[in-house]
Amino acid sequence: MKPFPVFMAGLLIIGTSLNSRLDAAEPTAASSAFTSKDSVVLKALDLMSSGKFEQAETILAKESKADSETLRARRELVDVIRRTRFEYSLDPTGLLAKVKKSVPDATANDVERWAKDSRARYRLIDGRKFFFRREPQNIFLFCEDAKARRIKAGNAPSEPVWKLTDHLRAIVDESERTGAIEVLPVKHRVIHTLTIRSNNPALKPGSLVRVWLPYPQEYRQQRTVKLISAAPAPKFIAPNALDGNPVAEGAQRAVYFEQTVTDPAQPLVFQEVFEFTSLAYYPKLDEARVQPLPADWNGASLGERLPHIVFAPEIRRQVAELIDKDTNALVKARKIFRWVSANIPWNAEDEYCIIPSFAIKGFHARRGDCGVQNTVFVTMCRIAGIPARWQSGFETKPGEDWGMHDWAEIYISPWGWLPADASYGVKKSDDPRIADFYCGHQDSYRMIVNLDWGRELYPPKQSLRSEPADFQRGEVEVDGKNLYFDEWDSKTEVDREPLKNR
């Protein structure tokens, strides 16, 4: 297929040849360091786990002959160590200062106790204790004393005015009134801006800067996608994903830019403005109507996908205990959904690039953010014989800031692929249609960017992505070298306009 022009001069949609090789094997969605069998990489990972980062860096720096894939894994692990140091850069004094913004009279002893009670995230790095840079977010999520003291200080977060369960009720009512599966459309207008800060050492006169910004899919209940403007003029829009087993074409969809540096002292700004319409998706599910998988199902979305989807013995045992002798796919999915909702609460999570396995991390920690929660759900569904896969983009609920968000899909006949969001989980409602809404249904306030994880961008990126699995904030590369999240900023502004049903 030849590229063909779209709405503005010079803007092309790339054809199928670039990603055709992806159909043969699913990407890992992780650094190759986490799947490498190289003894040097394994030794360095072991040193990291015991807090000996400098020693890990030393053995990785030693020159030795190896094949290209092994050398790549070693280089990427050096980068992972650097990223881990950044993500865990908050010392106890810094944590106390951040806590005092919400609880002014907090003491060092208070914070030490609260960190222990909440299992606040930290790592020992070369003999020093460093907390996750997003703390004390988890302290105020999981420590009751810390929450009470923040409320007493008058700094409790405000409750949202817009009620999600009211929206879910409206979806159910409208779908049952009209018989429609797709209801309550909402028009979105999004401005996404990525800024590379000035005087970055990687920026030199003549350097080639490559930038990928997220762009919505045309997928089922998401439609009428339109790029309104972009600056500088982009080179490509990735093609829309083609659903299938596996998903083909632009499974992680982006607008691609290139710019040559002229003045490193000036920041570089890349911006896109686009619109799309998202509808709620509410098929009427009935356990009595469930059918077996199609006879020609090719096994897609049913197996392990290392390192993140792992059929570990302890996860297998939990699935077996949950589903017992049930054979109905919807019954099994609902049991797994309720278990994850009850047992894997949301927490502020590490950047995905430094997590060796989402499923293992979430299952054992009994915590995780949306991507980790839903990967545990996907993994358990696959073990139970239910095809399950990743989906992600943004949540755009009214009255709140936009938010990057990940969820899942499960395949159940006769309905096909159904949305499932174990992070939103079981809602507090006496109405089972509302309580279990997110196991098979979707609200109106979403933006779907990715129909899979870890898929190659258009055109391919040469270096380890800042986010090897997901794609939401964007990606940046300068002269073939990745720029991590600490070297640039992104901002997303979302306007929403509910429309009349069509």
Ordered list of secondary-structure elements with their pairings:
Layout: E1 4-5, E2 12-13, H1 39-49, H2 53-61, H3 68-87, H4 92-100, H5 108-118, E3 122-125, E4 128-131, H6 137-142, H7 144-152, H8 164-178, E5 182-196, E6 208-214, E7 222-231, E8 236-237, E9 241-242, E10 248-249, E11 254-260, E12 268-281, H9 313-323, H10 329-343, H11 358-365, H12 370-383, E13 388-395, E14 403-412, E15 416-420, H13 432-435, E16 446-450, E17 475-478, E18 481-482, E19 488-498
Parallel strand pairs: 2-8
Antiparallel strand pairs: 1-2, 3-4, 5-12, 5-19, 6-11, 6-17, 7-12, 8-11, 9-10, 13-14, 13-16, 14-15, 17-18
Written account of the structure:
The chain is built from 13 helices and 19 strands. Helix 1 (39-49) runs antiparallel to helix 2 and helix 1 (39-49) runs parallel beside helix 3. It is globular. 28% of the residues lie in helices and 23% in strands. It has three domains: 31-154, no CATH class; 164-280 and 468-498, no CATH class; 285-450, C8orf32 fold (Roll). The strands form five sheets. The protein has a seven-stranded mixed beta sheet with strand order 1-2-8-11-6-17-18, with no helix packed on it. It has 502 residues and is of the alpha+beta class. The two termini are 34 Å apart.
